[in-house]
Specification:
The complex is a heterodimer of chains A (112) and B (114). Chain A has 112 residues and is an all-beta fold. Helices cover 0% and strands 56% of the residues of chain A. Chain A is built from no helices and 11 strands. In chain A, the strands form 2 sheets. In chain A, strands 2, 4, 5, 9, 10 and 11 form a 6-stranded mixed sheet that branches. Chain A is globular. With 114 residues, chain B is mainly β. Helices cover 0% and strands 48% of the residues of chain B. Chain B has no helices and 11 strands. In chain B, strands 2, 4, 5, 6, 9, 10 and 11 form a 7-stranded mixed sheet that branches. In chain B, strands 1-3-8-7 form a 4-stranded antiparallel sheet, with no helix packed on it. The termini of chain B are far apart. Classes of the chains: A mainly beta (112), B mainly beta (114). Chains A and B meet through strand 4, strand 5, strand 9 and strand 10 of A and strand 5 and strand 10 of B.
């Protein structure tokens, strides 16, 4: 039973446009939400996070939005660049767990 | 390089053999995690340590899997009597307990069981 769902396995975007990656979670006890990026043959790297007391966090071209009532978060990348092409994992933390729970990932391709 | 390092990067073994992976975390990090990743899936949590204490191990996939972190430094993950279904990427990550959600991952150890 998936606690973190990324329903889009892949996304293709033109360079310069906005990329929107989505994530849904099931447990309202989760209180910290993160996005990781993974290039081939590398481990995931932390990208951006948001705590449950906020609804938006911005870091340069990356913004994460949290909708607690819908148990939904999204990652916006604008403008998208070819170097952003990677697999993006949504992850949640909190509740009774001391570990991150990851979604299956969305493969983003940014076309020049 | 002061990142998380894992060894070996690749391991090919025959079914029934034992394998051991090593992880050296970032030195100032007191938490160390093991995850497994298979094709098309996100990292799947296995176990984690805070210093030398193993705080969660119920997610280890079977009693063939065990992990240690002697002296709270490096860690080893052992898989006994490997099966073909154990073929996966085994990822190690470390973090500070106060920033427990922000994991720093190694490049992983890929296991292929023939």
């Amino acid at each position: 039973d998936q606690q973190v769902k990324q329903n889009s396995p892949s996304l293709s975007v033109q360079e310069g446009r906005i990329s929107i990656l989505n994530c849904d979670y099931t447990n309202s006890m989760f209180d910290y939400f993160l996005w990781y990026k993974k290039y081939p043959a590398e481990g995931p790297t932390f990208l951006i996070s948001i705590s449950s007391i906020k609804d938006k966090n911005e870091d340069g071209r990356f913004t994460v939005f949290l909708n607690k009532s819908a148990k939904h978060l999204s990652l916006h990348i604008v403008p998208s660049q070819p170097g952003d092409s990677a697999v993006y994992f949504c992850a949640v933390y909190g509740g009774s767990q001391g570990n991150l729970i990851f979604g299956k990932g969305t493969k983003l391709s940014v076309k020049p | 390089d002061t990142g998380v390092s894992q060894d070996p990067r690749h391991k090919i073994t025959k079914r029934g053999q034992n394998v051991t992976f090593r992880c050296d975390p970032i030195s100032e990090h007191n938490r160390l995690y093991w995850y497994r990743q298979t094709l098309g899936q996100g990292p799947e949590f296995l176990t984690y340590f805070q210093n030398e204490a193993q705080l969660e191990k119920s997610r280890l996939l079977s009693d063939r899997f065990s992990a240690e972190r002697p002296k709270g430094s490096f860690s080893t993950l052992e898989i006994q009597r490997t099966e073909q279904g154990d073929s996966a990427m085994y990822l190690c990550a470390s973090s500070l307990a106060v920033r427990a959600g922000e994991l720093f991952f190694g490049e992983g150890s890929r296991l292929t069981v023939l």
